[in-house]
């Protein structure tokens, strides 16, 4: 069965999953379509060479949570893939490390997400004394779209004693009887959240975790910030000692050493904290990293005021303290008993920026309240708002129009009273008079 067929089988099983009361685990094969960067070695980042060939990575027997969708799922078979000599297949054992985000990789196709996978040669910082001549190392960088996890894995090739003389034609590495390059993952660095949004002044936690094979120790952890072409050190930990270069930045040493958790906490966020954070973890042999993009947001404050009451009246909508830059300001007008209608003709002021880096802008609108007055609404849309923010103001008609309307009302009342009075007089004039009686004295 090929990679596409195996993924289809997995999706069918996943779509028919049954709910289970308890969280259970099952070891499954995770298959990823990758590209092998044939030229250029590096120390933990994506390769720069454009010479890429298609490859397949099979992570063998990875423990993943089973919600009932994995029942009946069989192990991946490489026989079909290896018939194509141009397709390089890597088999990777994960017995030495943990892959905590494997379920996201397993269900990516079913969830409509894309997985980017690049494999390239990796050169050790310090070559171990008992290194097998035919051994080689590769690093795999995996990224799931849509805010999914990122994983970097360092893999060491394994010898095949039964098939030592068969080498891959281009890699010159031993092949298994099935024609695959067998490896074992010895080090991985993971982030659950490659992209984060936080409000100005809040506290951010940037996740970075790792797992190493037995016998390897973490020697240092470094967090750096890159933004707009410049970089700076945020936090550095080595040999049990941590040093914060950004005030308040912390990580938990106990979690770092016992749980493989090198997450960084940043309190009281400012706009200077925005940028790409690089979590780099170093062992005696390996170095790998993850990049977490942190975006800062500040919600706008909106105030509506009447510039002048005399015609032509002008409303000013002041939008202050927002970040990032993009903001939308629209107007609507509503008469009594009617529906809101869009209003055009508003003008924007020049952009203003505060010392803290947030932005402000004003929108002005000449209003036409009519003879009965109207309600005007200034509506602001910004990425930091879950829904648009609107402020309202009722604009009364001009005084002259009010007097004119009052005069018409009074005239109408007098006219009606006059008609009633004349009608009453006519009724009295046309009604018959009662006969008079004579009085006689006896």
From TrEMBL:
Taxonomically, the superkingdom here is Eukaryota
GO terms under biological process:
negative regulation of antigen processing and presentation of peptide antigen via MHC class I; peptide antigen assembly with MHC class I protein complex
The record, for PROSITE patterns, names: IG_LIKE, IG_MHC
Main location as per UniProt: membrane
Q: Which residue ranges does the record assign to the Ig-like domain?
A: 177-293, 300-390
Claim: Transmembrane is one of the keywords in the record: yes
Which UniProt keywords are given for this protein, alphabetically ordered? Cell membrane, Disulfide bond, Endoplasmic reticulum, Golgi apparatus, Immunity, Immunoglobulin domain, Membrane, Microsome, Repeat, Signal, Transmembrane, Transmembrane helix
Write the signal peptide boundaries.
1-17
Give the residue spans that cross the bilayer.
405-424
Q: Name one Pfam family in it.
A: C1-set
Q: How does it sit in the membrane?
A: Single-pass type I membrane protein
The record, for CDD domains, names: IgC1_Tapasin_R
A GO CC term?
Answer: plasma membrane
Q: Does the keyword Transmembrane helix apply?
A: yes
Q: Name one GO molecular function term.
A: MHC class I protein complex binding
From the Swiss-Prot or TrEMBL record, state where the protein is found.
Answer: Cell membrane; Endoplasmic reticulum membrane; Golgi apparatus membrane; Microsome membrane
Q: How is this protein organized at the quaternary level?
A: Interacts with peptide-free HLA-A*02-B2M complexes or those loaded with low affinity peptides, likely facilitating peptide exchange onto higher affinity peptides. Interacts with MR1 in a ligand-independent way; this interaction may stabilize MR1 pool and facilitate ligand loading and dissociation.
| Protein's name in the database | Tapasin-related protein
